[in-house]
Design brief:
Helices cover about 35% and strands about 20% of the residues. It has 13 helices and twelve strands. The strands form three sheets. Strands 10-9-8-11-12 form a five-stranded antiparallel sheet. A four-stranded antiparallel sheet has the order 4-7-5-6, with helices on one face. A three-stranded parallel sheet has the order 2-1-3, sandwiched between helices. The chain is an alpha+beta fold.
Length: about 350
């Protein structure tokens, strides 16, 4: 197949996206596909006459890794021409059989790009624009969870400038409403920390989610074509599962399958499948949960419609537990996505 792998963009998760994209492109080439890797924001910088020719040309295999710090988006913006989609991205996508979206956060995962590709008749991997938008916005996700009987931590939405800011008591968790990879997220123990946490989160968005802290085991499960994959338990070696612990190898223990009972495994998997229906997401996604240490209650935190595909990412680990290699899970995502267009 001719596949355009789209990564990068202007999200605070840009580095994660490029790491996912380069890995996916390399794996798909190894499976015999004709692959062109394109940065959503910068576009394709190589020379060509016809975009279809790119898929017949030998492409450089780029290796990339996530840095400890998040990217400087202001600097990246200054390097571009002010548009959110590179000038040649759409024509390359139209020349492909399908686009593999290796994007995380912002324009790649919030439904805007999906709606744009729909308007051009371009096939792409993952959920459509509506499910993407619902899952990306934690306020809307919580509304859908509650309407569908899916437990989620109690919380409120705090809007920048509307002071005095309400709280839910301490400890609590403060995070941007539509962020990802724990960027701008803080664990808060007191009012002084709360004010600082809000200031940090407001750097990313004007709406912030404040949730009661649930002390429990962190579990995550992927769902592919409506069926839950193996459950993973996430155990950071120090602190909590923040940006650094997520993407720097060796800082977090990820146990697959999770060392929980068969009954609890079943509970998490069935709940993860219900999450997809509640948010109208399909093809594949990953749902994140906390299991309360006190009573074993499960709380859904969020669903990720374009989960990471980096060397430390979780969905590839779940696939490996099922006997599917990295290239195989990439092909599976494409195959299930293509079913939408029949």
């Amino acid at each position: 197949m001719k596949i355009a792998v789209i990564c990068g963009g202007l999200s605070s998760e840009r580095d994660v996206s490029i790491t996912s994209g380069t890995g996916v492109a390399r794996a798909l080439r190894a499976k015999g596909h004709k692959v062109v890797l394109v940065d959503l924001y910068y576009g394709y910088k190589g020379e060509y006459n016809d975009p279809a020719e790119l898929f017949e040309m030998e492409q450089e295999d780029v290796k990339y890794s996530v840095s400890v710090e998040t990217p400087d988006i202001e600097k990246i913006l200054a390097d571009g021409d002010g548009t959110r989609i590179g000038k040649n991205v759409i024509e390359i996508c139209r020349a492909a059989d399908i686009c593999f979206l290796a994007l995380h956060g912002e324009d790649g995962e919030n439904g805007k790009l999906q709606a744009t590709l729909d308007m051009y008749g371009i096939k792409y991997t993952g959920s459509g624009y509506l499910g993407s938008a619902l899952a990306m916005n934690k306020e809307l996700s919580k509304i859908q969870f509650r309407a569908n009987g899916i437990p989620t931590p109690p919380g409120i939405i705090v809007e920048k400038g509307k002071v005095p800011y309400a709280d839910v008591g301490f400890p609590c968790v403060v995070k941007p409403c539509s962020g990802g990879s724990s960027v701008g997220t803080s664990m808060v123990q007191c009012r002084e920390e709360y004010d600082a946490a809000l200031e940090l989160a407001f750097k990313f968005e004007s709406h912030v989610v404040v949730e009661k802290f649930v002390k429990g085991r962190e579990l995550t499960v992927g769902v592919m074509d409506g069926k839950a994959m193996p459950v993973i338990e996430i155990i950071p070696k120090n602190g909590w599962y923040d940006y650094k612990n997520k993407y720097q190898a060796g800082l977090t223990e990820e146990i697959c399958p999770a060392p929980i009972s068969a009954e609890d495994t079943e509970r998490v998997q069935r709940l993860a499948e219900r999450v997809g229906k509640a948010l109208m997401v399909d093809v594949y996604y990953r749902a994140d949960f906390l299991m309360d240490n006190t009573d074993g209650e499960l709380y859904c935190l969020e669903a990720n419609t374009l989960p990471g595909m980096t060397p430390t990412s979780l969905v590839p680990q779940m696939a490996a537990e099922q006997g599917i290699d990295f290239g195989g899970i990439c092909e599976k995502i494409i195959a299930v996505s293509m079913e939408k267009y029949k």
